Amino acid sequence: MEKEFWITRWAQQEIGFHLPEVNPHLLQHWTTLAPHPHHHVFVPLCGKTRDMVWLRQQGCTVLGVELSDLAVAAFFSENGHTPEAIPHPAFDSHEADGIRLLCGDFFDLTPDDVANVTVVYDRASMVALPPDMRARYVQHLLHILPAGAQILLVTFDYPQAAMSGPPFAVAPDEVLEHYREHADVQLLAQQDVLTQNPRFQQRGIDRLFENIFLIRKY
Q: Considering the entire predicted model, what is its pTM?
């Protein structure tokens, strides 16, 4: 899946993946993370999610990375911020009120960019990528993250043959396959959410679960 796919989706406002409210899994499972006085949270493929505002309200500093400059501009505008441009060699970087967004390619991130990160919040990254890119995504994420970083991961699981995605189906076994050699993986919850997602039912999906994981990098 090429970068232009997501840039076009934002340009055409085909953003059904964007939630207008804070994700309930984040609200429910945030306290499961190891306590830390000032978490530094990284949100890959962040879009304009309001989850970042909620995280900031909890006292966290937030770093997001996003391909679409329209999404970045919309986030700051819709939340009443006038961001400051921050020099960066590889990204168009802007910050306001403790939230810094890097506009560019996730795979251009280096360990220096996330050196202070204690938590990764992945609600929309892994499920946005096809299988070959998911493997590369996890490898790069594990490469750049500091030891001890925690990942709160939300995935969908459904019969992939019934729908092409995105969002793509990511079964628990796949999460384990990607992470277990480098991290502790805990399945926190599994919820049947088919009745809450009529657009999946309209596509003929007869099984839809959301799985929530807590992953700690060794």
A: 0.95
